[in-house]
């Protein structure tokens, strides 16, 4: 039985992220970080949804994924994902300690 299901993807304002269902890009998050997809999968089928962050390497977690089992009755499947921006810590330069006489 195929019941159309709605998948709602919400990120914390991250726009332009491709939404992948079963390995295929089916939508992109809009300017508010939201995407909606109508699924036409069989009831009780398991699907994997991935947010493709490959073009945004600073986002953590990278390539988040969720597995859903398609319900028998029509309902909204929700994928809520918070992201953080990874910023590498810059190493401080150490001063070299020189031995020997010092100028005053």
What does this structure look like?
With 104 residues, this protein is mainly beta. 0% of the residues lie in helices and 41% in strands. It is built from no helices and nine strands. It has strands spanning 5-11, 18-21, 24-28, 34-39, 46-51, 59-60, 65-69, 76-81, 84-85. The strands form three sheets. The protein has a four-stranded antiparallel beta sheet, with no helix packed on it. A three-stranded mixed beta sheet has the order 4-1-8, with no helix packed on it. A two-stranded antiparallel sheet has the order 6-9. A hairpin with a 2-residue loop joins β2 (18-21) and β3 (24-28). 14% of the residues are buried.
> What string, H for helix and E for strand, traces the elements in order?
EEEEEEEEE
Beginning-to-end CA distance, first to last residue: 88 Å
Structural class: mainly beta
Number of helices: 0
Biggest sheet, strands in spatial order?
A: 3-2-5-7
Strand percent estimate: 35-45%
Number of E-state strands: 9
Largest sheet, if any?
4 strands, antiparallel
Helix content: under 10%
């Amino acid at each position: 039985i195929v019941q159309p299901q709605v998948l709602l993807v919400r990120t914390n304002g991250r726009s332009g992220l491709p939404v992948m269902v079963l390995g295929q890009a089916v939508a992109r998050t809009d300017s508010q970080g939201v995407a909606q997809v109508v699924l036409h999968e069989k009831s009780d089928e398991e699907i994997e949804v991935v947010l493709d962050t490959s073009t945004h390497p600073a986002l953590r977690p990278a390539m988040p994924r969720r597995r859903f089992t398609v319900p028998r009755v029509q309902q909204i499947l929700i994928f809520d994902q918070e992201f953080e921006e990874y910023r590498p810590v810059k190493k401080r330069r150490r001063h070299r300690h020189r031995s020997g006489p010092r100028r005053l």
